[in-house]
Amino acid sequence: MFEVFKIGFLTVTFADVIDIALVAFIFYKVYTFLKGTIAAQIFMGLVVVLLLSLIAQALNLRELSWLLKLITDIWVLAFLILFQPEIRRLLVIVARNPFFKMFVKTENGDAATIITEAAFHLSQNQHGALIVIIKSTGIRGYTETGELINAKLSMDLLTNIFFPNSPLHDGAVIIKGEIIEAARCTLPLSLLTIVDGESLGMRHRAGVGITEQADVMSVIISEETGSISVAENGTLIKGLSKETLKRKIESAFKAPVVQGWKAIFYQYKKSKK
Length: 273
What we know:
Blueprint: E1 3-7, E2 10-13, H1 14-34, H2 38-58, H3 62-82, H4 84-95, H5 98-101, E3 104-105, H6 111-124, E4 129-134, H7 140-143, E5 147-152, H8 155-161, E6 172-176, E7 179-185, E8 194-195, E9 198-199, H9 202-213, E10 216-221, E11 228-232, E12 235-238, H10 242-252, E13 257-258, H11 260-272
Parallel strand pairs: 4-6
Antiparallel strand pairs: 1-2, 3-13, 4-10, 5-7, 6-7, 8-9, 10-11, 11-12
């Protein structure tokens, strides 16, 4: 391997430089994601312990290396348990990276039109609703909190689910492709409570909360005002027109479906056009 430089008895190769640079980049990205939270302080403490462990191993300090390794193992386990939501959000952000999405092809159908028409029908009648559209990864844990339906998506079914006093109108409907997977689902609440000076109700906080933890889009219809909002990537947009709502839902249905080498070939041909 090509030698870059040498420090005493230590030889540094080109592969070592790339390895160190990649590790530093990953640590930097994780820190910037966690910056401003308690998790960031614990993460920095873990980095310091790891550095001390490497130094102890390089100097062949066996007892100190054993002690630091023990601390590191416990610390990593505690970090995973205590900061599971932050780690989940980090993995979701990684999955949304365009680099991973270039190996996929998209699907679309009448689902966007059906959901849009249903949303505006519910809005005109001021029937509250929360519709979650799965983009790339499933949310089975939340789907199982409700009533499993697995029925073909239709406007009549969607509007009847959210009809007042219907057994399924409370909670969220989860849609994947052209299938309504479940209704009356319980979602995590966002810590966000105010947007544009207005307080958010439980339905809106749940709609935002699920987008913070999974790659989904939420369509929220207010029971009080009939206004339609969309939550995506932890951000809430309120007061959408029918055309804007349809475009956003169509973009959600362009979520990737992994197709292996066929998808790579498809994207290559598309880039050459």
